[in-house]
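To fix ideas at the outset, we first show an illustrative case, written as a sequence plus integers encoding its fold:
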Amino acid sequence: MSELSAAATLQALPYALPECGNARVVLFAMRRMGAHGLSDARAAHALFTAFGEAFRRPLTLIRALMADMAANAAAPIAIAPCCCARMTPSEQVLLSILARVETRVESARLLMQDLLGQRHVDGVLASAAAVAAAFADEGRPVSL
């Protein structure tokens, strides 16, 4: 890899993957749904593998969050392919929102406003809180 392509990669994907396995599951599901649609079988399989029989709630809520973000974003939200070992700034922000939405709501709201490029984000923030709660309720909280 040349110096130029390495620098371009680090600029486009400046963040390392999260150490938290739960955050990695969310990231994988979001990347698959973003690239292949909300009904992606591999995203569903990843959640089934992580949650067992309790996979339906987190799967449905991640689908709802992805749909809400797509409907409310003022600009495209950059996601990387599933094989990337690094994250885009948008992915890092979204995982930060999920990690703090239950404990630091105002901070999560500001991050969501920046991510979506608009001020009114309460509906999308509620979707993010539901995803975070679904993971936490199954003993798999998202952290960074």
The chain has a mean pLDDT of 94. Residues 56-72 form the longest helix (17 residues). Helices lie at 3-12, 21-36, 41-51, 56-72, 89-100, 105-116, 122-137. The CA atoms of residues 29 and 43 lie 5 Å apart.
